[in-house]
């Protein structure tokens, strides 16, 4: 004969839980039973009996007799099976008839899962430099790069040859960074192979986007021109969302910048101010004096000489190299110099008068910083007086 545990297993195969199967088998031992008679016969906790009876009744395996107390009777298993077979056949016929309509409700979606990009984290300027070179090499259409005022020096020393090759391959290379007197020479070298836009602020980090497929975000530590030494940190990724975001940011910098071909680190700025002064007649002496000090400090940092003779020579060379005019020492005691063609200021006497404040202020700061001496610059003659040059007396107090 079939054992109790074999009967239990067969009931579980028809979808009953172990407790449901135990209660049903216990009911088969009685004609009619109350709930209190089942726990000891089924080995099911008393607290679960009423719930299980309702579940078996829902399955069509138990009849509930509405007496007090409630009584229960097991439905013969054969009767239960016949009813289930009939229900399953009807369900099968219904499914077969409506299979197409039902399938449409559960059609496989065509949405592709978002692709998660790869990431690399790099430490140290050498490692960042090498990964950046690899990024440049992969470019097929476009390189967008946003950097700081020290970026041109690093570019010239580490990636200029890549840019040259990419230009030959037809890759568009576009840079945006602050252009000033300190990096002007490096910028001119880069401009042979790339489009350069001047921006008026240093971005918080250097970043590069290539072909809208991959990008690098670089934190320069420190932000200096050294191409080798530095504790830089960088992240490379081809994650589509991040690359698209960085591409958009890069274009905002580029579109907001000034084309380098029409930008001069000093002359056009003063020309713009001068034109404004000439057109609306505002006296900007105080503004130009402050601006002259700022520019003087920048120029001073680019010079090396610490004695008067060498400094005058270096200033003359600097002025000539940067198209700021020609300086000539007219007299040494007291020191008198003349400047010709200084930013073409003689074309407008009104502009020339205002620019004298600028040049006096900048020259005082240069001499004071390099010679560590007090300096006073006095205008002796100027294009605003009908001259063809600007003459300055420089009083250096040791």
Q: What would you say this structure looks like, in words?
A:
With 398 residues, the protein is α+β, with helices and mostly antiparallel strands. It has three domains: 4-100, Arc Repressor Mutant, subunit A, CATH 1.10.10.10; 119-261, Endonuclease Chain A (Endonuclease, Chain A), CATH 3.30.870.10; 267-397, 2-Layer Sandwich (Muramoyl-pentapeptide Carboxypeptidase, domain 2), CATH 3.30.1380.20. It is 47% helix and 20% strand. The protein has 15 helices and 15 strands. It has helices at residues 4-13, 18-28, 38-42, 49-59, 77-97, 99-104, 125-138, 151-158, 160-168, 184-190, 240-256, 267-280, 285-302, 308-321, 349-371; strands at 33-34, 62-65, 71-74, 119-123, 142-146, 172-177, 195-198, 206-210, 214-219, 233-237, 258-259, 326-332, 335-340, 374-381, 389-397. The strands form three sheets. An eight-stranded mixed beta sheet has the order 4-10-9-8-5-6-7-11, with helices on both faces. Strands 12-13-15-14 form a four-stranded antiparallel beta sheet, with helices on one face. A three-stranded antiparallel beta sheet has the order 1-3-2. α1 (4-13) crosses α2 and α2 crosses α4. The radius of gyration is 44 Å and the shape is rod-shaped. The termini are far apart. Mean pLDDT is 83; it is low at 264-268 and 344-350.
């Amino acid at each position: 004969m079939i054992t109790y545990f074999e009967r239990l297993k067969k009931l579980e195969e028809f979808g009953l839980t172990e407790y449901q199967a135990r209660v049903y088998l216990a009911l088969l031992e009685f004609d009619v039973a109350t709930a209190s008679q089942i726990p000891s016969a089924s080995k099911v906790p008393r607290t679960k009996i009423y719930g299980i009876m309702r579940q078996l009744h829902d399955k069509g395996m138990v009849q509930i007799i509405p007496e007090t107390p409630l009584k229960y009777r097991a439905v013969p298993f054969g009767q239960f099976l016949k009813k289930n077979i009939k229900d399953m056949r009807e369900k099968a016929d219904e499914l077969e008839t409506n299979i197409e309509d039902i399938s449409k409700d559960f059609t496989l979606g065509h949405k592709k899962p978002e692709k998660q990009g790869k990431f690399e984290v790099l430490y140290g300027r050498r490692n960042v430099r090498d990964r950046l070179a690899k990024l440049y090499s992969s470019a097929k259409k476009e390189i967008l790069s946003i950097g700081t005022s020290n970026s041109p020096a690093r570019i010239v020393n580490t990636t200029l040859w890549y840019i040259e090759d990419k230009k030959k391959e037809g890759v568009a290379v576009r840079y945006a960074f602050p252009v000033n007197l300190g990096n002007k020479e490096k910028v001119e070298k880069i401009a042979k192979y790339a489009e350069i836009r001047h921006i008026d602020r240093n971005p918080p980090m250097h970043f590069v986007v290539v072909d809208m497929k991959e990008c690098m975000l670089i934190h320069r530590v420190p932000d200096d021109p050294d191409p080798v030494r530095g504790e830089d940190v960088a992240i490379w990724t081809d994650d589509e969302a991040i690359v698209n975001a960085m591409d958009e940011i890069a274009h905002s910098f580029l579109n907001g910048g000034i084309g380098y071909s029409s930008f001069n680190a000093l002359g056009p700025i003063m020309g713009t101010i001068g034109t404004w002064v000439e057109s609306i007649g505002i006296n900007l002496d105080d503004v130009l004096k402050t601006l002259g000090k700022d520019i003087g400090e920048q120029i001073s940092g680019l010079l090396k000489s610490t004695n008067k003779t060498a400094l005058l020579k270096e200033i003359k060379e600097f002025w000539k190299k940067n198209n700021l005019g020609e300086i000539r020492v007219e007299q040494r005691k007291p020191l008198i110099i003349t400047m010709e063609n200084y930013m073409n200021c003689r074309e407008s006497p009104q502009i020339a008068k205002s620019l004298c404040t600028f040049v006096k202020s900048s020259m005082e700061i240069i001499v004071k910083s390099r010679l560590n001496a007090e300096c006073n610059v006095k205008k002796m003659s100027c294009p605003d007086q009908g001259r063809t040059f600007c003459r300055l007396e420089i009083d250096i107090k040791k």
